[in-house]
Amino acid sequence: MPLPPEDYSLAGLPALPSGARRRTMTSACSWRTAMRAERNMKQFLATVEVRSERERELVDITELVRAQVRRSEVRDGTCALYAQGATAALMVQENDDPNITLDVLDCLEGIAPAGRWRHDRVDNNGSAHIQAGIVGPSEVIPIRDGRLALSTWQNVFLCDFDGPRRCRTVLVTIQGE
Question: Which pLDDT tens digit goes with each residue over 95-128?
Fold first, then answer.
């Protein structure tokens, strides 16, 4: 049920300029359409290329992503990241203790160990496909005041489960104001 017009501030909508009126919306679809028309939304597309050096590795790409956020000039919005490749994934994880990346790899190896999958008969990387599928190829991070809204102990990692690779590609899509 839509909120009455006077309660829009409770829904987290931005304040309107003095004298402006917000239309009363009857469905979520029409609300999104109206909000898109009222805001000055930007879209910025980029690619980050990363080299891995080991067979299984978490590569910190936070600074590369931050550079793209700065280039986008988006102050508030979202940064969507997508790792291309069936044996690559993305993860937001602790950045302080280097052992956490090793623990993550050990955990995934315990869940999907190498050498026991039917796909190994094709190219011997069945566990890499399964581990990438468990972690997933994408992350979406809020942007606030022109910066990634990661907490103090969080960074963004490309997970390469079938390296080393000369080039892993991460697609970056930034949207916002």
Answer: 999 999 999 999 999 999 999 999 999 999 999 9
Q: Which tokens is 136 given?
A: 């997933």
In angstroms, the CA 50 to CA 59 distance is 8
Q: Who's near 65: CB < 8 A, 6+ residues apart?
A: 48, 79, 81, 141, 148, 156, 170, 172
What domains are there in the chain, each with its CATH number?
Answer: 5-38 (no CATH), 42-176 (2.60.120.460)
